[in-house]
Amino acid sequence: MMLLSESSGEARVLRGIKLADILLDSDVIIAWLRGYQPVADAIMNLLESGHTLLWTPVSIAEIFAGARKNETTRLEALFQILETLPISESIGKKAGHFLQKYSRSHGVELGDALIAASASLASLSLWTIHKRHYPMPEVQLFSPFLR
To answer: 18-142 — its CATH code?
Structure first.
């Protein structure tokens, strides 16, 4: 399956991917909320193709903390579109392992460790703009754009 989206006259191609659930990192959700067209187009293509998109309570907290006043209505609408992946004890333990292993060497912080652990333990692909925040080999990163 190849899906196209147009942005500023530049065609971007969505990779041929099998139907799967995808965990969105906070940076992707923020780009979507703020109208970054390549991200918005890719999300619409994924939703129209039947993919389930998820977020974690970490992303919810980060997004609500940095929300602009005019984004409140759109934020509330996300709860109708995105599934919430709860944080469990096993996710907390895995995040602690990631912090122990990657916080000093790669600067991984608690929020990213929790998101990475969520993706890893739920066998979800993680879509992030900032791949350097996720050096863990057991986290499968998703990128809808071919460059």
So the answer is: 3.40.50.1010
